[in-house]
Amino acid sequence: MGPQSAADARSPRILIVRLSAIGDVILTLPLLNALRARFPQALLAWVVEDRAACLLEGHEALDELIVVPKGS
Questions:
Q1: In angstroms, rounded to a whole number, what is the distance separating the alpha carbons of residues 43 and 20?
Q2: What are the distances in angstroms from CA 59 to CA 46, 62, 65, 71, 72?
Q3: Which residues contact 18 (CB under 8 A, 6 or more apart)?
Q4: The pTM is what?
Q5: Cβ-based neighbour number of residue 23 at 10 Å
Q6: Is residue 44 exposed (0-12), middle (13-18) or buried (19+ Cβ within 10 Å)?
Q7: N or C: which end of the chain has fewer CB within 10 A?
Q8: HSE (CB half, 13 Å, CA atoms) of 67?
Q9: CA end-to-end span of the chain, whole Å?
Q10: 46 touches 56 (CB < 8 A)
Q11: What φ, ψ does residue 27 adopt, rounded to 5°?
């Protein structure tokens, strides 16, 4: 990655790691929405295993979805 601009440096970059438990992913969704409301300019990413990815794909509060194979 290249150097960040001053504006980028002020914007938080937040990574949620909730890999495989579908119930845990569902229960963590309000956190995602709360983070977006509190930090509208933040980059919000989520790491999840493939079996739970369908719950997050296309979510409007999420900037990046990182899908890893089960057991990674």
A1: 22
A2: 11, 6, 9, 24, 23
A3: 24, 25, 28, 46, 47, 48, 52
A4: 0.79
A5: 8
A6: buried
A7: N
A8: 8
A9: 24
A10: yes
A11: -70, -20
